[in-house]
Design goal:
213 residues
């Protein structure tokens, strides 16, 4: 019932914090909706260090302000999420699929193209996608639509997204088509991660008085 909570509500944030702290990360790329989870991680590291001495790196959030939250193409009031496939761009989908989603993105009944997340969230989301993928100044992007309409905005945004996603999809398929190489890379990464994690764990054990292996 609504008066009960699963154990995951309590254990998952701790697991997430452990995944960050064990590798001594000094910066963590997150979206705005993950800021509170990272704050818990920071609090745990600070409290451990205050009690046992400097041991864990206190991570800083790495949030790109302009793209902290990309919203759903069909519902600009919600963040883009795989739980809403029609409003989400999937990196491995074919170009025709992603282009159709972007060209059918919800905007508004106005015709003015400007960056205004409060009153024009759909239009602003498309402009944000362009800015994120091209690195262009938002003002310059908006000025480029002075004599254009929503159709132009959607078509050009779709092409920019496809140009960015295409190489990622191609590279991913290369790995998927070569299971042996993919397995080698996974094992190599696991060894590197294990070495970093072991170093942190040994330091923690020593500080709290546990016996290591």
């Amino acid at each position: 019932g609504s008066d009960r909570s699963t154990v995951g509500l309590f254990t998952y944030p701790i697991l997430q914090a452990a995944d960050i702290l064990i590798y001594q990360a000094n910066a963590v790329p997150v979206g705005e909706d993950q800021r509170q989870h990272l704050e818990l991680t920071r609090n745990l590291a600070q409290r451990f260090n205050a009690r046992f001495g400097e041991t864990l790196t206190v991570p800083e959030p790495m949030i790109v302000k302009e793209t902290a939250k990309i919203v759903d193409l069909q519902d600009p009031t919600a963040k883009m999420s795989k739980s809403s496939p029609s409003g989400c761009v999937f990196l491995l989908d074919e170009d025709v699929v992603n282009a159709k989603k972007i060209k059918s993105a919800v905007t508004d009944s106005d015709r003015d193209i400007r960056f205004d997340p409060e009153t024009k969230p759909g239009v602003s989301n498309l402009l944000t996608l362009q800015q994120a993928l091209t690195g262009s100044d938002m003002g310059r992007i908006v000025d480029g639509y002075a004599d254009k309409g929503y159709g132009d905005l959607k078509t050009e945004t779709a092409q920019i997204v496809l140009d960015a996603v295409g190489p990622i999809r191609a590279r991913t398929r290369e790995f998927l088509d070569d299971p042996g190489e993919l397995t080698r890379i996974v094992h190599q990464g696991a060894e590197k991660a294990r070495a970093a994690a072991t170093s942190t764990l040994d330091a923690v054990y020593q500080k709290v008085g546990f016996l290591g292996d």
